[in-house]
Amino acid sequence: MESMLTDEIRKSVPVGSTVEIWGRVKRKLDLVDYGLVELDIGMKRVGAESPEAAPGSALVALPYRAGKAVPYPFVAPRDDPWSRTA
To answer: Is residue 56 in a domain?
Structure first.
């Protein structure tokens, strides 16, 4: 995996504006010690007709309920973890 977080700032958002921050699960993977979730993320000014101000993606490692903590600092896998399940 190249990066755990990517984003593009496409539009400036004026100070005092209300923004909507969102995330949508793109895919998830259950590994032995923790789960990985790939997200599409974004930020948009509320009420604006323009496209996303800052679209992006994120890779998140989450612990299992009553499981071990995710290692800190977390080092993202170098390869694509989803290719291992094929």
So the answer is: yes
C-alpha–C-alpha distance, residues 54 and 4, integer Å: 16
- The yes-or-no verdict on residue 3 having pLDDT over 60 is no
pTM above 0.90, yes or no: no
Residue closest to 35 by CA, chosen among 61, 13, 9: 61
**Coil, helix or strand for 14?**
coil
Q: Is 58 helix (H, G, I), strand (E, B) or coil?
A: strand
Quote the domain boundaries for residue 19.
Answer: 5-65
User: Quick one: 56 exposed, middle or buried, by C-beta within 10 A (0-12, 13-18, 19+)?
Assistant: middle
Share of the chain above pLDDT 70, in %: 90
Average pLDDT over the chain, rounded to whole? Answer: 83
The answer to whether residue 71 is domain-embedded is no
Asked whether residue 34 is assigned to any structural domain, the reply reads: yes
